[in-house]
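Notes on consecutive records. When two proteins share a document, each keeps its own sequence and its own token line. Never mix them. Below: protein one.
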Amino acid sequence: MNAPVPPTADAVHEKALVDKLVAEVSTRAPHEAFHFLEEEPDPVVALVLTRLPPPVSLRILQDFRKEGREEKILSAASESKREQWRLNASYPADSVGALMELPHALFRPGTTVGEAIELLREMVKHAFVTYGYVTDEEGKLIGVLVMRELLLARPEDPIDDLMLRNPFFLTAGMPLADAMRAVLNRHFPVYPVCDEEGRIVGEVRGYALFEQQTVEISAQAGRMVGVEREERVSTPWQRSLRFRHPWLQLNLLTAFVAAGVVGAFQGTIDRIVILAVFLPVLAGQSGNTGCQALAVTLRAMTLGELKAGREKIVLLKEVLLGLWNGVFVGATAGLGMYVYARMQHNPHAPMLGLVVLMAMTLSCIVSGAAGVLIPVTLKRVGADPATASSIFLTTATDVCSMGVFLWLATHLIGGQA
């Protein structure tokens, strides 16, 4: 037998370089990854992109396209990888098709176990094969082959007798959220991917589905306050500034709206100064109520639990929760206002306590409703429901809580002060 040829020093160096670049790029957003790879030669970039998830590779390639290097990098990659990337790019970024790899182990009915094993010997030299797929003449998936069954079968046995018939598969256009729910209780290492007619077009690895969904969920908290999903700790401060500053300007504008509400009742505050002490209390409690409703609603949207027509049920639930939370918290806050007003020898202590109770209850009801309505409305107008939803929610809760509180104080106490 011929001894294996040892790798050259250049090959060892190139592998070490690619390993280092992959480790670095994996922690960066696609745009920062592009800048990190920009000075590397095309063959090295191609090797790095080959080892990244398809959606990340495609977004980096888009930046190289602007530099006129995309085709050179594609030429440096293998033909199968080029075909895979072009296929991935033909599907939405949040779909199964954007994550899938090309299927390799395809067999026709009637193939014997011995023939299938001989074919696999060549396939595994170029690809990582987990399952085999049996397709008819039109390419429709009719069965899945498990390697263990091939190993234990006789060479003359037809694979038709071994394959798992009517196998589970995902469709290429399926949103990732739907795919996650479909595979939640299956836990297969690889899932076949078919088109709408049942023809196999690829396969997607289970870890890739969960990894991509984890990235989406981890980015959700940031998008709620105006942090873009691409921002990482390694993002240059100038780019982070461009990401964040517009949302802070919007937040400032909405804060002016809340300040305008307080200003409209300046006369009442001047006569009953004690009201100013409880404005932050009301805003904070109603804001927390709204954030709870918002978090549950966004989670339901991410997991696909908020089906069309169920919005009213969720809304009614959050309004009911807001009512009872508002009553219980309002009773405690009202008692606090009463005690504090008595300590200040304010003659309207009982009425002030009642105003706090009423304002807290109404504010929590509105906040709970806003936590549902804001993301649902953003989704209906085609916007990301998580994008800066916290900013809009804060405005709604501040305006409502402080406006209701000061309006009630003006009409129930203001004339007597």
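Protein two starts on the next line and is unrelated to protein one.
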Amino acid sequence: MRYLLIALILGITLAPLVRHDPALAAQAAPGATLAPGSQSRLEAGSAVSQAAPASPLAKAAAAPVAKTKPNMPISIGMFLAVIAITMGIVVWAARKTRTAADFYAAGGGITAMQNGWAIAGDLLSAATFLGITGLVTIFGFDGAIYAVGPVAAFITVLFILAEPLRNIGKYTMGDILTFRVPSKTVRGTAAVSTVVMSMFYLLAQMVGAGKLMQGLLGIPYTVSVVVTGLLITLYVVFGGMKATTWVQIIKAVLLVVTGFGLSLAVLWKAGMNPVGLIDSVATSPAIQEHVRMLLKHPLPQAGFDYGQRFLEAGLFLKDPLDTVSLGLAGVLGCAGMPHILMRFFTVPDAKAARNSVIVSLFIIGAFYILTVIMGLGTALYVTPQKVMMFDKGGNMAALMLAQLFGGGAGTIGGDLLFAFLCAVAFATILAVVSGLVIASSAAIAHDIYVNIIKDGKADQRQQVKVARTTSLAVGLIATWIALAVENMNVAHLVAVAFAIAA
């Protein structure tokens, strides 16, 4: 019976991958990768909207669109500020990283509050900030469903994983599995699966960073990826887990403050009335027109409430199996990602591990609510038509909303907020990729080299040297592969990573 259950879960989880059509999937938008199976359907939805006859209302909604690219001096200044701050953290952390425990787990000296923010920083990727906001903007309620799985995942982590992981007191997935089954084969398998999962997710983030810098700063994709790879390699090689932790904390704070500010602006414009905001969305002519295009209704159908349809399920995830699969991939996938699980080795005791999950759960849950508010606000005040003109996947939605509230394109305020959000998205990618690199290097150095090749007989100095060497190798290999997969659908890589982790 249990084998039938396992087969059923795997079948449901992998279902969207089997049905995935690369012909429909386009490149991920700047700085963002969407959740499993989403990009192909986004392209399809966009194709529907373009194929259907456009009414005068739709043309009017899409016509007066100014440039969305930020002021170059402001943008470059923002990016340089992010790089300078994070590199300062690396220099500080490098002086405190001497042992293997320092490198892999920050010496176990991270507090519950700090670790909670770092976990949030690890999970809240550019896909969360840009991708889910865009999904809500284009597909309404179905976009909000993407926020449910990761929050539920941390309930699983809280009750099942956090305390046992900390009590083991090691560094990797291999340490966890060999605690009960001491076997080099088990450790080696865990190390290989950790690297595979991390690499799929890492590549998606690297390509996203390259597209972000290419699209918004005009820097060639090759240069963008090389710069990103160089930065994250320096973070991990010299700063280890301590530097990675503080980069994640700062990035999470920036992300939450930014999301809160934009959501507050949306609610302020709606009279601080969330119900009124939802009513305005349902009665918006532009949104009604957009839904009609998605449903392939050449002419409005009498008695059909297109605005209400935007607030109901089924515009995006039309097959119930997709919804079930998304839930399993979100809950089990997030709870199985190595760079998330490694965070529980950084706190001093099991109580701190549990408390850090609670802190991160509140932060992540609150931020997902903010993404829904931002998505609805963008749909109402920017309109889905304008967002999809610049990016069919909707990943420019939050950036365009910030530019609107800053005064519009071409204004100092608009360009400043636009550039600031671009810099925050870039910091988001750097933080997530750093966590993935350190998880991969730990699996190679600690599991394969120290415990399999050296049979656990390696001094601290040698372990740190090998860890830094493998971090350098992982960073260089990831950069090289990211250059080769520029035109690959990175959303599919994320889907594979989450399915394997689940």
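For the record: The first helix runs from residue 2 to 19.
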